[in-house]
């Protein structure tokens, strides 16, 4: 059986579950484990260092014109002749969508099975792992994978209860300019880590959020994790936030509780990366209970607000 993944999260879960021998092609933005795999999906933003504002404008213009940011190497896909193609229909910016995938697949001599993975909440992401494994005839592998990760989230919940940790008033930003709140599974991650984001949109799309609304909400903890940005990339654009009126009055800023985090713990929804995100968030919200170490410690950094206040 030959599998092609048009979705980085699916690729990550395939590797996490040890099913990579079935994989014959991926996208340009799939995780490091798949670096040697043929790249079938490409993007017009690939290799460019556009700012948040520029990326937002490019996407808005492309959507208005009915165009996609992504394209498929048809010849490569034809040569692989996959049996299964994993795709998604959640976000037209993050990954190629099912409509574009269907258009590419229609041209193939051999028609593969399309398996769309479009989770809305955290439980849906867990079920996506089962869908992937089931498509490969390896359903039991997914159950073992999920059981290991469920143990980690259960331990966090036990610790929060044992320490009677209060819920922290949080905001997680999915984009800097314009500011987007967080949606889909991320609010559930926040809840699992001992926080609540009342500006979020659970199980729905993230949306542009007025700065005045954020100032009024006044989060205790602010987490900045723009989709597609690592810490270094986000730090380059922090001035877009720190120069806004009311920034210095935010409780998170006054108490030095602003964090920059790698996007792949939140907007690349494999179960493993999202559980890593919950672990990281717990360390940000309740550092008196949870200490970051190993890989988790490298996935976020506290932004030094004291030099700006």
TrEMBL record:
InterPro entries recorded: ABC_transptr_periplasmic_BD, Vitamin_B12-ABC_binding
Domain of life: Bacteria
Coiled coil: none
A Pfam family assignment: Peripla_BP_2
Domain annotation Fe/B12 periplasmic-binding: ranges: 2-289
PANTHER family documented for this protein: VITAMIN B12-BINDING PROTEIN
Protein name as catalogued: ABC transporter substrate-binding protein
Naturally occurring in which organism (per UniProt): Pedobacter kyungheensis
